Amino acid sequence: MGACRAACRRLSGPVQARRSRRGREVAFDAQGVVPDMVVMGKPLGNGHPLGAVVAKREIAEAFANGMEYFSTFGGNQVSCAIGLAVLDVVRDEQLQPRALRVGQALLDGLRPFVARHRLVGDVRGSGLFLGVELVRDRESLEPADSEASYVVNRMREEGILVGTDGPYHNVVKIRPPMAFSEDNADRLVEVFDRILAESLRV
To answer: What DSSP state is assigned to residue 29?
Structure first.
């Protein structure tokens, strides 16, 4: 990463680890990187098609080179009003600190799984962007992909939507909505715990 910082422009495009989901204004805050340009999309409009580009002044000024740059829908007043309303809700309802608080409660509930379930190799993440890595063997770290698929499908049957991720599809990815509460976190932990136990009997 150090060589990249010195040798190249840095571009960030947070989508899933979007605005405030990880309990921070932007996800790259935690990485010690200041990008030259940030491309933002879906979260800004909360479902309404809206995007934005934020760039360092030197990059933005490079567009003022005599060649016309335009966007068909750029500056749309309705979209801009929706984006501002979303930012107001994030601020007024304290969604950023809430994501950090509820996410920490969820993480605290999931971490004991490493000691309780031999299938769980790691629990990681921050805010409302977490992963539970399933492995068949703690030494070799053999990915438990079919087990992860079983867990995801069983949780769906219980009304909880999670997915799989990672190169081997053995990480159960937890990305609940920003309205997720401590009670929701408790239920997710209870159901996940029960399904992990039953997966070893299947």
So the answer is: G
- With a cut of 70, say whether residue 43 has pLDDT above it: yes
CATH of the domain at 116: 3.90.1150.10
pLDDT tens readout for residues 75-131: 889 999 999 999 899 899 999 899 999 999 999 999 999 999 999 999 999 899 999
Cα–Cα distance, 143 to 74 (Å, whole number):
45
Choose one of 92, 112, 135: the last residue of a domain.
92
Total count of domains within the chain: 2
Q: CA 55 to CA 69: how far, in whole Å?
A: 15
User: Are residues 100 and 87 located together in one domain of the fold?
Assistant: no
- What's the mean pLDDT when you consider all of the chain? 85
* Euclidean distance between CA atoms 23 and 29, whole angstroms: 10
Q: What share of the chain is helix, strand, coil (3-state, %, to 5)?
A: 45, 15, 40
Q: How far apart are CA 198 and CA 202, in angstroms?
A: 7
For residues 41 and 53, give the distance between their C-alpha atoms in angstroms, rounded to a whole number: 9
Give the strand pairing for 37-40 and 11-12: parallel
| Residue 94 φ then ψ, to 5° | 55, 45
Domain hosting residue 11, numbered range: 2-92
Summarize the confidence of residues 33-61 as an average pLDDT: 84
115 and 161, same domain (yes or no) = yes
CATH code of 88's domain: 3.40.640.10
